[in-house]
């Protein structure tokens, strides 16, 4: 009787333990990819504080771990992973959405080529100045920024069409925090400066059709809290006169005089040497 040779049972591959994501700092996890630049990706990953690999299914996965002060290296690796959909980012042990962490990277890549990168964040290259040091906030020093409508107008006893505008700094801060959250990982954001700018911003400003630093923010729509302004110009006896009636619901800066004062004081308080205020308000 011929004894059949038993079929060998394949030996199971040893289980590979999953990655241990650190509770502090940053970690980027990504899968093998066939991109031409993948060797460069691996080179950047191996520059991290710690680098690991493991097998998931039939795919090799990589983990690059960075300390909390190594975010510039994190940015470089993230940029090299453009196009790789099998990627994850962890911040202090928690997985974050990729676009939430790196929403600012296009802006910083343009910043590198600016003639004055430190002034770039204040909107100099676009000629749309902001005092906060972040152009992505869209809270510029201009006629149309919404934050100049956050406050209230009170009639002044000084004369006709003269009002006192009180900034609602709490609402402005809420707007800043809401927008900053999207770009909170940008290494160029200076939250100390932003807080100081808000503190230095006057609580109240006088505004009229002829005020030197501030004018009314106007519009055709009716907004709660708005006031009606009646202007009369010229002398009827000379045959040259005109009247204007409009709704005012906020203020707008008239020139950059107030912006210069605010920036100069805030830069002194924060010890900022660069950029110069003159670089921003040319």
Fold blueprint:
Blueprint: E1 26-31, H1 38-45, E2 50-56, E3 59-66, H2 71-80, E4 87-91, E5 94-96, H3 98-101, H4 105-111, H5 117-120, E6 151-155, E7 163-167, H6 169-182, H7 191-200, E8 204-207, E9 214-219, E10 227-235, E11 240-253, H8 257-270, H9 277-280
Antiparallel strand pairs: 1-3, 1-4, 2-3, 4-5, 6-7, 7-8, 9-11, 10-11
Helix pairs in contact: 1-2, 7-8
Protein described:
The chain is an alpha+beta fold and 282 residues long. It folds into two domains: 26-102, Alpha-Beta Plaits (2-Layer Sandwich); 122-280, no CATH class. It has nine helices and eleven strands. Helix 1 (38-45) runs antiparallel to helix 2 and helix 7 (191-200) crosses helix 8 (257-270). The model has no long low-confidence stretch (mean pLDDT 88).
Write out key terms for the chains shown:
single chain; 282 residues; alpha+beta; Alpha-Beta Plaits; 2 domains; 5-stranded antiparallel beta sheet; 3-stranded antiparallel beta sheet; elongated
């Amino acid at each position: 009787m011929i004894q059949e040779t038993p079929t060998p049972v394949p030996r199971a591959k040893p289980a590979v333990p999953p990655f241990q994501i650190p509770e502090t700092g940053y970690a980027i996890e990504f899968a093998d990819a066939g991109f031409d630049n993948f060797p460069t990706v691996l080179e950047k990953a191996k520059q991290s504080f710690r680098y690991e690999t493991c097998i998931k299914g039939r795919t090799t996965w990589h983990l690059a771990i960075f300390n909390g002060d190594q975010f510039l290296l994190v940015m470089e690796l993230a940029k090299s992973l453009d196009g790789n959909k099998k990627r994850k980012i962890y911040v202090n042990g928690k997985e974050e959405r990729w676009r939430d962490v790196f929403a600012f990277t296009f802006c910083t890549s343009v910043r590198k080529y600016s003639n004055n990168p430190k002034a770039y964040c204040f909107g100099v290259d676009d000629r749309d100045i902001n005092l906060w040091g972040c152009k992505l906030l869209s809270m510029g020093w201009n006629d149309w920024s919404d934050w100049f409508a956050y406050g209230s107008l009170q009639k002044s006893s000084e004369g006709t069409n003269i009002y006192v505008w009180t900034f609602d700094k709490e609402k402005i801060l809420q707007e800043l925090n809401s927008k900053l959250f999207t770009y909170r990982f940008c290494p160029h954001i200076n939250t100390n400066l932003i807080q100081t700018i808000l503190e230095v911003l006057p609580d109240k400003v006088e505004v009229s059709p002829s005020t030197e630093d501030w004018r009314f923010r106007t519009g055709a729509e009716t907004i709660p809290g708005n006031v009606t302004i009646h202007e009369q110009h010229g002398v009827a006896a000379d045959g040259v006169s005109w009247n204007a009636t409009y709704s005012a619901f906020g203020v707008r800066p008239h020139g950059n005089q107030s912006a210069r004062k605010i920036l100069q004081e805030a830069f002194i308080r924060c010890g900022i040497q660069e950029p110069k205020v003159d670089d921003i308000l040319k």
